[in-house]
Specification:
By secondary structure, the chain is α/β, with parallel strands linked by helices. The protein is built from 12 helices and 14 strands. It has helices spanning 6-10, 16-27, 62-66, 133-144, 157-160, 164-177, 218-226, 276-282, 284-290, 307-311, 314-330, 334-359; strands at residues 35-42, 46-50, 55-60, 79-84, 90-95, 101-105, 111-116, 120-126, 149-155, 183-186, 207-212, 251-254, 260-263, 271-272. Helix 4 (133-144) packs across helix 8 and helix 4 crosses helix 11. It is globular. The chain starts with 5 loop residues before the first helix and ends with a helix.
Length: 362
């Protein structure tokens, strides 16, 4: 059985769809009394929850922390059903199916959750040495594959103002490579007035997530939107403009305008949890031009009459092809991975034999 105040919880992001899913999940639970709360932080064996009025600590069943394949484990932003045991300790019993969920893959292909139930993603990139279009395209693929609308935030406009020619060149290159319809906002994250640039996103009940590399200015922007220094910030390295992971965990906060914002640490391994079709959603120019290639199975590598190579920035195409190769490796089964490794080892041995014969060592 579950009873909750919809208007109260709407203030921390509850929607009608999520409320209905919570009722259905509660109907399948045998507990006599359940509460609906939102996850604001995830720790090793516990989570921090918000009930619309206050925060609570709760323990989590191991299966919910792990998930079935890693990606669907509990994440910041999730809604959960909570019950109390005989000692009045809170336990998360059920995860309500999210309306959106962003996950990434590790180098070995394993999935990891990032956030759930977000409406917009602010992808932050600095206009200093943090500027990296390949990395930005990976973040956009990560977000678009999850059906979340991205907004590119170019931070550190105050630093870039010292070199306007370089700043304008960065912005021009970015706009050339962005998917159609993606909004771009240029801000000085330390300026309180920059919060006005996001007023159309921070309405009551909305949830934003801030993504980007360490040192891009995510926590600085979060603090500016919150109107208080809630998140720790730190200096960046002089030689490359990168941060040193001042933010180490994801956390959800309530904004003055009624929205919620989730700050995240920089990702050490950034591989979107997306199949080939989802990747094409963020490389629409590649998908469109592919239809004009001379060969239907054109790989856009060296074939004659390739419309993609002729019409897409070579660096952008290289980035797409690299992400596609990673996706294909990620989709291999354990047996296929072993077979691939065996084939690589066999080719390596054959190459060494050929080199010995060539040198006359055989």
């Amino acid at each position: 059985m579950i009873n909750f105040d919809f208007e109260l919880l709407r203030g921390i992001g509850l929607s009608g769809t999520l409320a209905q899913r919570a009722r259905e999940a509660a109907a399948a639970d045998a507990a006599a009394s359940l509460a609906l709360m939102r996850v604001t932080a995830v720790h090793r064996t516990t989570v921090q929850l918000h009930d619309g009025r206050a925060t609570h600590a709760a323990r989590v069943l191991p299966r919910l922390l792990r998930g079935d394949d890693g990606a669907d484990a509990i994440a910041v932003g999730d809604w959960v059903l909570v019950g109390a045991d005989a000692a009045a300790d809170l336990w998360v019993r059920t995860r309500v199916a999210p309306t959106s969920h962003i996950a990434r893959r590790d180098g070995d292909g394993s999935r990891h959750p990032i956030v759930s139930n977000v409406d917009r993603a602010l992808v932050v990139m600095g206009l200093d040495d943090d500027f990296n279009l390949r990395r930005l395209e990976r973040y956009l693929s990560l977000v678009l594959a999850s059906d979340v609308a991205p907004i590119v935030v170019l931070s550190k406009a105050d630093i870039a103002a010292a070199d306007p020619v370089r700043r304008d060149a960065h912005v021009a290159r970015l706009r050339e490579r962005l998917p159609a319809g993606v909004e771009v906002v240029v801000v000085d994250g330390t300026d309180p007035d920059s919060a006005a640039s996001f007023a159309h996103l921070t309405g009551f009940g909305q949830t934003l997530v801030v993504l980007g590399s360490s040192g891009a200015g995510k926590s600085t922007l979060t603090n500016t939107l919150l109107g208080a220094a809630v998140q720790d910030t730190g200096a960046v390295r002089v030689h490359d403009g990168r941060g040193m992971h001042t933010t180490t965990a994801r956390s959800l906060h309530r904004l003055p305008g009624g929205a919620c914002i989730i700050d995240t640490p920089g990702l050490r391994t950034l591989r979107p949890d997306a199949d080939a079709d989802a990747l094409l959603a963020s490389f629409a120019d590649v998908a469109t031009l592919s239809a004009r290639c001379r060969f239907r199975d054109c790989s856009h590598a060296g074939e004659p009459g390739c419309a993609v190579r002729a019409g897409v920035d070579p660096d952008r195409l290289h980035n797409f092809q690299k992400m596609l190769r990673e996706n294909r490796r990620d989709s291999l089964t354990w047996v296929e991975r072993r077979q691939q490794l065996s084939a690589w080892k066999s080719r390596g041995r054959e190459a060494r034999v050929r080199m010995k014969m060539k040198r006359g060592d055989g």
